[in-house]
Specification:
With 172 residues, this protein is mainly α. It has one domain: Helix Hairpins, CATH 1.10.287. The protein has five helices and no strands. Helix 2 crosses helix 5, helix 3 packs across helix 4 and helix 3 runs antiparallel to helix 5. The longest helix has 75 residues. The N terminus is likely disordered.
Length: 172
């Protein structure tokens, strides 16, 4: 068992050297973090936190760049949330060139961010489900193999009993 763990850490591809649980070979810290978040079902708070952080940053930047259209930090944050969510109410819009540049970046980031998050989260959910299915398949295979071994042992015992009877008949 210890050998299997060592080989799993090294990522051996030799048959029979793989551990019972599938382990990703090379995952960066953020990928491992994201995968753990999805596996434990705690991904929503992390996604909400990332969205809030981006919204606050964009709101702060637009407030600094375009004071005319965004006189308060709250107005800038409201606009960035609405823009990131691709809703765009239109109650607050940038009119200066730099405000529109920031707005364009926030729109592109919002669309890209939402698409990327959807793809990543879906991918991790699919991977987690596939790993569970693989583990269940391996478990069922082990159960079937054990049943087959038990059947073979019983057949071997019956065959030995028959051979014993035949030997006694031949001797007797």
């Amino acid at each position: 068992m210890a050998r299997r763990r060592r080989l799993a850490r090294r990522g051996s591809d030799a048959p029979g050297d793989q551990p019972d649980t599938p382990t990703p070979r090379v995952l960066g810290g953020s990928e491992r973090w994201a995968q753990r978040a999805v596996e434990t079902g705690r991904v929503i708070p992390y996604l909400a936190g990332a969205t809030v952080a981006v919204s606050l940053l964009a709101g702060f930047i637009v407030t600094l760049i375009d004071r005319e259209d965004f006189p308060t930090f709250g107005t800038g944050v409201w606009w960035s949330i609405v823009t990131l969510a691709t809703v765009g109410y239109g109650d607050v819009v940038p009119h200066t060139a730099w405000g529109r540049v920031v707005g364009s970046v926030v729109i592109v980031f919002g669309v890209t961010f939402l698409s990327f998050l959807t793809a990543v989260v879906t991918s991790y959910f699919v991977t987690a489900l596939q790993e569970r299915a693989t583990l269940e398949e391996r478990r069922l295979r082990r159960v079937e193999e054990e049943e087959t071994r038990a059947l073979l042992r019983r057949l071997d015992e019956r065959l030995a009993a028959l051979e014993g009877k035949l030997d006694r008949k031949a001797d007797g």
